[in-house]
Amino acid sequence: MSTPDFYIKYVIVDDDEIDREAVEMESVKFPFLHKIATCDNPVEALEIITRSEPDVIFLDIEMPGISGIDLLRKKVITTALPVLITSHPEYAIEGFELEAFDYLLKPVSSERFANCALRLRDFFQMRTKAYAFDAEQENNFIIIKQGYDKYKIAINDILYLEAMKDYTKIVTAKQKYLVLSTLNGIIEKLPRDKFVRIHRSYVVNKNKIDTVQKNKVKIQSKELPIGKLYRHELSFDK
């Protein structure tokens, strides 16, 4: 197994021992994930988080005393990216409104955890080279910049966009760009007849969709989830 170029430090916070072990067993499959600690209560977790400053917190929502949602709402966790874990899907909307990076439903499947881990890897690798979003756009192009240098992305070349907290990943067939802008900030500049939101975290180019299934769309080799609230958006003729 090759040595990773960088590490993502994480803490697991969950009052259920089996669930903590399940997350840890999945995380060891990814060498770039480096465990700092596992905690069974939020009070202990806060001490560890303050001291060790992890990059990511796998955070159970339902815990005695202080819930994961309470921690996020009180802004106790400030620098680490929270990945919420719960048995109850109804918490998903509130979690995303509180800027959780991802949301895992128990029991966490290997496929779903892998998707989260790779998104985390992409985010941390790309963040150091993130582009700024230029409010002045041109017809048929999105303009991004680094310092004084500006770059054009042809709107027709975009496959999909992915929300990553305060950033958005723009994916074309040839390249990925991480842009310092919310997903909403970018889609306001895109033609509504060409792009559709399929999930709280994903917007896709209609013309790039290969197949639409019950819970996902496929664009080239990439499968993207369809959120329940957005299924009606995909009732269009390609």
Structure description:
The protein has 238 residues and is of the alpha/beta class. The protein has helices at 17-27, 42-52, 68-73, 92-97, 110-127, 183-187; strands spanning 8-13, 33-39, 56-60, 81-86, 102-105, 131-133, 141-146, 149-154, 158-164, 167-172, 176-180, 195-199, 202-205, 211-212, 216-219, 222-225. It has two domains: 8-127, Rossmann fold (3-Layer(aba) Sandwich), CATH 3.40.50; 131-234, LytTr DNA-binding domain (OB fold (Dihydrolipoamide Acetyltransferase, E2P), Beta Barrel), CATH 2.40.50.1020. Helices cover 24% and strands 34% of the residues. The strands form three sheets. It has an eight-stranded mixed β-sheet with strand order 8-7-6-11-10-9-13-12. A five-stranded parallel β-sheet has the order 2-1-3-4-5, with helices on both faces. It has a three-stranded antiparallel β-sheet with strand order 14-15-16, with no helix packed on it. α3 (68-73) links the parallel β3 (56-60) and β4. The radius of gyration is 19 Å and the shape is globular. The termini are far apart.
